Amino acid sequence: MDFLVLSHVQKRFGDFVALEDVSLEVHRGEFLCLLGPSGCGKTTLLRIIAGLELQSAGTIVQAGRDISLLPPMERDYGIVFQSYALFPNLSVADNVAYGLVNRKVARAQRAARVAELLALVGLPDSGAKFPGQLSGGQQQRIAIARALATSPALLLLDEPLSALDARVRVRLRGEIRGLQQRLGVTTILVTHDQEEALTMADRIVVMKDGAIEQVGTPSDVYLRPATPFVADFVGKTNLLPAQRAGERRVQVGAQRFECEISATARDGAGLRIFFRPEDVVVRGVHGATPNSAAAVVEKIEFLGAYSRVTFRLNGIDQPLFADLSLNDMAEFHPRPGDTLRVSLPADRLRVFAAA
Amino acid sequence: MSQVAPGHPLSEGPARARRAMRMGVHWTDRVAHGLLILAGLALALFLLAPMAVILAKSVEDRAGEFVGLANFAQYFATPALLRSIWNSVWVSSLVTVLTLPLAFTFAYALTRSGIRWKTLLRNVALVPILAPSLLAAISFIFWFGNQGVLKPLMGEGQIYGAPGIVGSMVFATFPHALMILVTALSLTDARLYEAADSLGTSAARKFFTITVPGAKYGLISAAMVVFTYAISDFGIPKVIGGNFNMLATDIFKLVIGQQDFAKGAVVAIILLVPVAVTYGVDAYVQKRQSALLSARSVPYVPRRSRGFDWAMAVFCWTLALLMLAVLGMAIYASFVKLWPYNFSFSLDHYRLGLIDAGIFGAYLNSLHLAAWCATLGAAFIFATAYLLEKTRGLDAWRPFVRLMAVLPMGVPGMVLGLGYIFFFVPEGNPLHFIYGTMAILVLITVVHYYSSSHLTAVTALKQIDNEFEAVSASLRVPFWRTFFRVTVPVCLPAMLDISRYLFVNAMTTVSAVVFLYSPRTMLASVAIVNLDEAGDIGPAAAMASLIVVTSALVCGLYYFAQAWLDKRTQAWRH
User: pLDDT category, B297, cuts 50, 70, 90?
Assistant: First the structure.
């Protein structure tokens, strides 16, 4: 049985539905990310798991115990907030020991545990300092140490990195992930940053308007988005309206492309096709290459390791994007106004029913 | 989920779900709920019940029979009493109209000019807060009274009556308006002025398009505070009013002089009306202002400008000297042997007038009262604000406690005091035993000054991270541990503020306690009223001076405590 099971969890604030009908299983020891735009209900869901909000309906079972109605004090979790919520007047060591003091742990044992945790988060000598004397990233690590001190079975992280600057954020991502893997503690992280979710999670739960859009591994979510929303929210995407025009064929504007289509869509039915900028191929494309067309280059943005080329295909109104590697750029050196032959490989095109 | 079957009321679904879902309550949360219920009941008992009894009394005759609105009819048929309403309204309006421009100009000089000695000027201007309001009245008598130093300036007129009341009230209300206006003017965003400058805007246009709109809510709020203060003050019209009657003095005369409780209750209710109106306006304005505060603004740094700074300096120093003249006269007169015949220095008013006359005990009683209010009162107010803001559950009860906490602001001291008599004097009340004790004085003083203290506490609590309690619960640490280990240390500066505010007000208040003291619990501020009534204006001045000096010393102590605390905690405070 899964470690944490949420069944039909709903939350309403008056007439506003914050969570529609959320069911979710979290495996023991996994790192789960709740990902979505602001207002999608991800933080509400985390707070319900923590007992800080009460769901309007539904049940939550943790380690076989129904915790749906238990107050926070009777649940088993550690939590880290975006604001860190470190006690400013207590030293770092006292902050980390805060939950231990109440459990009547012997003084020497407590000190050893604090030292162990501070070493674990890579700040072994900061015990005597006050939180205000540490950087944001260091404070965040102390907050994690405090949450882990009592060895909770579940670690909840509410946008823990969003208040930090970009460089620290990237480093802490790796550190938190490493720590979680070493300890094996089941972890749920709330974030609106898709890159954070893709790099840290074992599985990602993409949410929108209080409902789950997709649950899957990072590569699932990135490569096989279940809905147009997921495709658009995770990574950069080209999303085009299309019609079915045969068994393995869609019509997009004046262009026709080959691709896999699920059987349910009728001929002429409204569809949407989706492909990522990096799926666009320019190397070795010629007139006979399937799914190829002449692209007119409109704009080129240099982004370091690759360049993003904005282009148009004949008969399609909206601009499209292709990411070309430095090698491709060196070989084809496209300029605005140039025409370039591109192809969209059939196995990279995904088709959704029209919204 | 979003579809609703026809004929199926929309509200039924959520309501059913709510009934089904009820979070378990941990026993430590039950402790918090218990304490919050107790706090709410205490406020109901010592605020709501006395006010309710006033309402009841106003519709009863002397024998306690229900007479409907007969008392009101009778009141409105008495021209002498009706005149008091008019007197109260026009005097308070005049005080507001006079105080506001003075305080605004002073605040403008403090925030927008390059004058020197701003801190000193500000402290001088705040001195009236340390004195009982009637100190100004006593001082005006020494300056302009029948035997006053500047009596000739009065010509045919005399200071007793409206002129003295208005003058004294302007002095007493000035610092209250000043504090609000300084805050309001400090909030303006410097970037607005920079933008205006870059567009070549004239100084006058900047003043009327940026400064005044920015301080608008502050001006309205200050006007309401001054008006409320003036209309509910008792000490000033009592001392310098002569035959000029106002609502607050009417209550006193009706209740103490004529023992006409029913009519006293009627006047109390009439006095509640204008206060309730201004209170409502102020509450509305404050709500609007909080939206302005959230903007991230750049503080304004005044530029030096010779002519303007000179004008402002002259204005401020003139006002400061006038205030010192009012304060100084009372202190000076307290050391004069026999006014106006023998101006030699003497301690007679202190020695003979206070100590030998057995009135010095009143001063000690005031110290007692102030100490209790500053400790127990401050602790109760802060703890209740904490329970309200930081604990969870008991959602239906919280709005009531919150209302009880802000309601005292709208109740004049005389009205509250009258309610206490009505409620605690009858022998049938199980709490009758506190009547005539120090306890009832502590209770009424804390309740009377509850709202400002509560709001200070709430502001401080709102500034600390909202998730401390959530983190503590996740670590299974009971809330009281976090309260004592984190919340109290972090909020200590605000707690000291509350404590000092209660101490000073307990020393100076008259209106709330004038009905409630007993011979054993006579207070210094009330003793001034009695001494003045007996014609002992010298000892009255001595007692007023003692209060001012004590308040000032205590403020100094708090200042040093605050500085010491800052130093001790600067490792973690930024």
Answer: low
Mutation site, B471, B477, B565, interface A, largest A CB count within 10 A: B471
| Contact A61/B at CB under 8 A | no
CATH class of residue range B78-334? mainly alpha
A147/A167 Cα distance (integer angstroms): 24
B54-108 tens-digit pLDDT: 999 999 888 888 888 998 998 899 898 889 999 999 999 999 999 999 999 999 9
State the smallest CA–CA distance between residue A126 and chain B in angstroms. Answer: 14
Contact A146 B475 (CB under 8 A): yes
Cβ within 8 Å, pair B20-A57? yes
Question: Are the beta carbons of B475 and A12 separated by less than 8 Å?
Answer: no
Domains and CATH numbers, chain A: 4-232 (3.40.50.300), 237-353 (2.40.50.100)
Please write the tens of the pLDDT for every residue from B457-507. Answer: 999 999 888 899 999 999 999 999 999 999 999 999 999 999 999 999 999
Identify the pLDDT of residue A263: 59
Q: Which residue of A has its CA nearest to B470?
A: A52
The mean pLDDT of chain A is 92
Strands A31-35 and A186-191: parallel
SS3 labels along B442-460 = HHHHHHHCHHHHHHHHHHH
Quote the minimal CA–CA distance from B466 to chain A in Å.
8
pLDDT of B7 > 60? The answer is: no
Express as a percent the part of chain A with pLDDT over 90.
72
According to CATH, the superfamily of the domain at B34-52+347-574 is MetI-like (1.10.3720.10)
DSSP readout, A62-100? ETTEE-TT--GGGS--EEE-TT----TTS-HHHHHTHHH
Res B480: pLDDT: 95
The DSSP call for residue B305 is -
Give the model confidence (pLDDT) of A60-83 as tens digits: 999 999 999 999 999 999 999 999
Of B26, B467, B485, the CB nearest to A73: B26
* Chain A interface includes B569 (CB < 8 A): yes
Q: How confident is the model at residue A216 (pLDDT cuts 50, 70, 90)?
A: very high
> A12 and chain B: CB distance < 8 Å anywhere?
yes
Same fold, B34-52+347-574 and B78-334: yes
Q: Where are the domains of chain B?
A: 34-52+347-574, 78-334
Asked if the C-beta of B574 comes within 8 angstroms of chain A's C-beta atoms, the answer is: yes
CB contact under 8 A, B467 and A90: no
Distance from C-alpha of B213 to C-alpha of B202, rounded to nearest angstrom: 16
ipTM over 0.90: no
Residue B280 vs residues A70, A320, B30, B272, B525: alpha-carbon distances, Å: 42, 59, 35, 12, 30
Unique residue bearing structure tokens 């115990």: A65
Residues of chain B with C-beta less than 8 angstroms from the C-beta of A152: 474
Map B87-108 to HEC letters: HHHHHHHHHHHHHHHHHHHHHH
Specify burial of residue B353 (Cβ count, 10 A radius: 0-12, 13-18, 19+): buried
d(Cα B4, Cα B84) in Å, to the nearest integer? 62
User: Which residues in chain A belong to E strands, given as ranges?
Assistant: 4-13, 16-26, 31-35, 57-62, 65-66, 78-80, 154-158, 186-191, 203-208, 211-216, 238-244, 249-252, 255-258, 270-275, 292-302, 306-313, 320-325, 339-343, 350-353
B572–A132: do the CB atoms touch at under 8 Å? yes
Nearest CA in chain B to A8: B1
Q: What is the pLDDT of residue B14?
A: 45
- Alpha-carbon distance of B350 to B258, in angstroms, equals 33
What residues in B contact A17, CB-CB < 8 Å?
1-2
Question: Nearest CA to CA, how far is A54 from chain B (Å)?
Answer: 7
